Amino acid sequence: MGKGSHKYASKVPDERGYIAYTEDEDQVWSELYARQMRILPGRACEAYLDYLAALELPQDRVPQLPEVSEVLRAHTGWEAAPVPALIPFTEFFNLLAERKFPAATFIRSREQMEYLQEPDIFHEVFGHCPLLLDEGFAAFSHAYGRAGAAARKEDHAMLARLYWFTVEFGLIQPPGGALRAYGAGLCSSIGEVRYALDSDVPERRRFDPIAALRTPYRIDIFQTVYYVIESSAELYDLAQQDLLGLIREARALGMFPPTFPPREAAAS
Ligand SMILES: [Fe+2]
After folding, report:
1. How far is the CA of 189 from the centre of ligand 1 (A)?
2. Is 268 a known active-site residue?
C-alpha cells in the first residue's frame, strides 16, 4: 500500500504463479537478505526472527509467492497474492479480509538498495510475511481488512494510520524485556530499524489504538513517533474490538498536531 510515482511495474506471474526474475534481481534479493540478517538479531523481536526462519526463504534468489503461501496456509490460513505495485484501498482491504496478503512482485533496483517509498517484494515477503505466521498478528491483519472493507471511504485514511503504527512501524517491549522492532517497514529497512530503537530523536509512545488513529505520519521520512506494544496478544485483542467504533471515537477527539515539518511545497 502507498502512494507515489509509478517507477516500478509489478511482474506478471505465469499460470503456476511463478515469476521469472533476472540474475541481477536474484542478486539484489540475496544482498538485501544477507544485509538484513546482519542487523536484525537483537533488533527484531524474537517472534519475527523465529517465523522468518520458519518461512525458509531462499537466500540466493527472489522467492516465489506460491512457495511462501504454502507455509502461510499451513500456519494461519493466509496466502500471499501478487498485485501491481500500488492498489486502491478498497482492493487492499478486500484482499486482507480474505486472508490474502497483497504483495507487489517487483524488486528494487540496485540504485535504491537503501530506501524506496514503494513496497517491493523484499519489503512484502521479508518484512510482512514472517508475522503473518503468528496467531495474534494474523488475526489483527484479518480484522483490519474486514473493518476496511466495511468502512466508509472517509475512514480509509484513518484506518491506514492504525496499520502504519502497528504492522508497518510497530515496536514491541514485553514487561521487563528489551525494546525490539516488529513492523515490516522497520524489519525490511537498514537505516530506520536502528534509528527507531537507538536514536534519541523520535518519541516512543505506549500503544493505544485511539492515539495511533489520531497521529499523522509521513511516508517519506523516518518516523517521528513510534508506538510500542507489549505483546502480540494486544493486537489479537484489538482484532476482537469494533475498529469502526474506535475510528468514530478518534474522529470525535480530532487529530494530534504533526510532530514533523510539512512536506516541501515545491515537491507537490
Ligand atoms: Fe508494508
Report:
1. 11
2. no
